[in-house]
Write a structure and sequence with these properties.
Distance between the termini: 13 Å
Number of strands: 2
Shape: globular
Structural class: mainly alpha
Radius of gyration: 18 Å
Strand content: under 5%
Number of helices: 9
Helix content: 55-70%
Order of helices and strands: EEHHHHHHHHH
Strand order of the largest sheet: 1-2
């Protein structure tokens, strides 16, 4: 995908004044929002310029400010996972996600999604596609179980099909998506956009 879409929620301003380890001062919640947005801009710039230095800049901001921006901590966590995935640092990504609690993710299936994805990509690096595919299959089963109780969750639907496309043939994935469209009329338009996105994604 050419860009990362980030949803920024409007939060009440919570003033505080903490001296950061790199010498900067986080003065209020607006500063945290600005720093978070800067880290996301570096990720977007990576997609535009294909410059890995942008990922390093993003990771530096995330590591420097996460502990001082409690209201934005979970968003910094998600940004860090994205950066480590793009850097293909799957080992560090797995270790980082493993330090987080399930409650620190927006949806219950997310921790396992990231843990197993990082592990699967490590296996792929080693050429072990059989065990990689087993992990990706486990992920799709867990997300499908989650969707039984939250059928309209667009993020879960996206995660499901982005995982499927990693280890299944495109024809089968699109067939599954069309079945899901028939079952889920309220998300039909969203699923059509998702289908177009999957078709435009380059195969690794």
């Amino acid at each position: 995908m050419k860009k990362v879409l980030v949803l920024v929620f409007t939060l009440g301003i919570f003033y505080f004044n903490i001296k950061c380890s790199n010498g900067s001062t986080v003065q209020n919640q607006k500063d945290c929002k600005m720093i978070y947005n800067e880290s996301i801009n570096h990720i977007n710039n990576f997609y535009i310029k294909n410059d890995k230095n942008e990922l390093q800049l993003s990771l530096s901001k995330i590591n420097s400010y996460t502990d001082f921006c409690s209201e934005y901590r979970n968003r910094f966590y998600n940004a860090k996972i994205t950066v480590l995935m793009l850097m293909k640092d799957f080992k560090q990504g797995y270790e980082f996600v493993n330090t987080l609690k399930v409650e620190e993710f927006q949806f219950a299936y997310k921790k396992n999604l990231y843990l197993k994805t990082f592990k699967a990509l490590l296996l792929e690096k080693e050429g072990n596609l059989i065990d990689r595919n087993k992990l990706f299959l486990e992920i799709t089963e867990e997300i499908s179980t989650y969707l039984l109780n939250d059928q309209l969750n667009k993020e879960a639907l996206s995660d499901l099909f982005y995982t499927k496309i990693r280890f299944q043939e495109i024809e089968g994935v699109l067939n599954d998506l069309e079945i899901k469209q028939k079952e889920n009329e309220q998300n039909r338009e969203f699923l059509e956009i998702l289908k177009e996105t999957l078709l435009s994604m380059p195969k690794d």
